[in-house]
Amino acid sequence: MSTETAEPTESESSDEIEEPESALETARRQLQHAAAHLDVDEGVIERLKHPTKVHRVAVPLKRDDGNVEVFTGYRAQHDDVRGPYKGGLRFHPHVSEEECVGLSMWMTWKCAVMDLPFGGGKGGIVVNPKELSHDEKERLTRRFAEELRPFIGPKSDIPAPDMGTDAQTMAWFMDAYSMQEGETIPGVVTGKPPVIGGSYGREAAPGRSVAIIAREAIDYYDYDLEETTVAVQGFGSVGANAARALDDWGANVVAVSDVNGAIYDPDGLDTHDVPSHGEEPEAVMTYDAPEKLSNEKILELDVDVLVPAAIGNVITADNAGDVQADLVIEGANGPTTFAADAILEEKGIHVVPDILANAGGVTVSYFEWLQDINRRQWSLERVNEELEDHMLSAWDDVRQEVESRGISWRDAAYVVALGRIAEAKSVRGLWP
Ligand code: NAD
Question: Is the minimum distance from the CB of 79 to ligand 1 under 6 angstroms?
């Protein structure tokens, strides 16, 4: 799935054609944007524009037919002033060095806004995992772990699952790393199965955090949760978990969608009955609902809250004018383009950004890392309680910036993140 966002340059008006912007351009622009609100040393901003290190490795794989193919892998390490690098490993044909660097910067902001003791990292292999057998995927993962071994570790850089990788991939990765190190080191990656040190609640956490932030925003803008209508685009890990939590807490989830289209029931859907992507891929439209809509139309429904939770760049200059929701809570990474953001702001629609709303994933990864270091597993109840506390605390920090500076939720989230990183850099100083 794309995480790119698009924007015209600052001088262009929002109704001109939007050019797709790379993750790196987005990350750098957001850095500059936030810096304008803060009194931060220019030298710190300059340092943050560049990743600390980018590792490029060759990953040879013996295919099932005996032939050897060599794939390229990357690990971008953006900044570790607040703690070890943290971020996913993706297996996807579009992985590139630039994308890894951009996404590692996003991880730096995301960890900082959540006040986690981590910096940003991201990596992956340029490969289509759908073209690999199970055994080939395992061999590729183990060799990648070995190639990255000198650069990662529980105290230096902790990968996690991302597009094309999952809990099983992390198990192989952890096993390969541990075998070479001569001891079991579960804290080298997060997102593992619970039986080998993974955390309960990790898979549901990004969607759960979206729901917590949506609930807080609903309350902040004086809506009654029981009467609030919600539409969720994308019914996968993030979308389904967010929709079901909001439904459980009393909200009226009236529409959900997948890549094939949307279902709509003005009286509210039973979200637990609608098959999620994980339960039955792309089966939302098979559900018996009073109305079916196109996937684009779900973004234009007259609801109180819209949660885009499928892919990036879905709310653009072309359709932002048609959005009728009062609140947009970003579940996907980068669902709103820069130009669309400006249009939504003009219309008085509040947008709560991805780096806050879906940060439950990396937050529970932090809990997993703590559990691994302490060799003590937490119950699901404890994970969810701690997640709630962390999300509320981050929400409060961002809310204070919104109120005191009169800025958008997105700008406020970046101000909180950059403020923390800049302060840490300034206190630690530049060596030598
Ligand atoms: P997923 O694969 O579990 O589900 C994606 C859903 O979106 C599916 O229902 C799919 O049918 C739908 N979809 C795909 N393409 C679409 C399109 N063109 N239009 C409309 N719907 C489409 O994915 P996920 O893990 O839920 O991730 C969704 C988004 O959230 C991504 O942007 C991802 O980067 C982001 N995210 C995921 C996590 C995580 O840990 N899962 C954490 C943070 C952010």
Answer: no
In CATH, the number for domain 205-357 is 3.40.50.720
| pLDDT at residue number 30 | 86
The residue extents of the domains of the chain are 51-186, 205-357
CATH topology match: 51-186 vs 205-357:
yes
234 CA: nearest ligand 1 atom:
7
Could you tell me if the CB of 285 is within 6 A of ligand 1?
A: no
Q: Whose CA is nearest to atom 23 of ligand 1?
A: 236
**Low-confidence stretches of the chain (pLDDT beneath 70):** 1-20
Point out the ligand 1 atom lying closest to the alpha carbon of residue 237. Answer: 26
Ligand 1 lined by 239 (C-beta under 6 Å): yes
Q: What is the pTM of this model?
A: 0.94
Q: Separation of 332 CA from ligand 1 center, angstroms?
A: 6
In CATH, what number does 51-186 get?
3.40.50.10860
169 in contact with ligand 1, CB cutoff 6 A:
no
Active-site residue list: 122
SS3 letters for the chain?
CCCCEECCCCCCCCCCCCCEECHHHHHHHHHHHHHCCCCCCHHHHHHHCCCCEEEEEEEEEECCCCCEEEEEEEEEEEECCCCCEEEEEEEECCCCHHHHHHHHHHHHHHHHHCCCCCEEEEEEEECCHHHCCHHHHHHHHHHHHHHHHHHCECCCEEEEECCCCCHHHHHHHHHHHHHHHCCCCHHHCCCCCHHHCCCCCCCCHHHHHHHHHHHHHHHHCCCCHHHCEEEEECCCHHHHHHHHHHHHCCCEEEEEEECCEEEECCCCCCCCCCCCCCCCCCCHHHCCCCEEECCCHHHHCCCCEEEECCCCCCECCCCHHHCCCCEEECCCCCCECHHHHHHHHHCCCEEECHHHHCCHHHHHHHHHHHHHHHCCCCCHHHHHHHHHHHHHHHHHHHHHHHHHHCCCHHHHHHHHHHHHHHHHHHHHCCCC
C-alpha 239 – ligand 1 centre gap (Å):
7
pLDDT digit string (tens) for 321-357? 999 999 999 999 999 998 999 999 999 999 999 999 9
Average pLDDT, the chain: 94
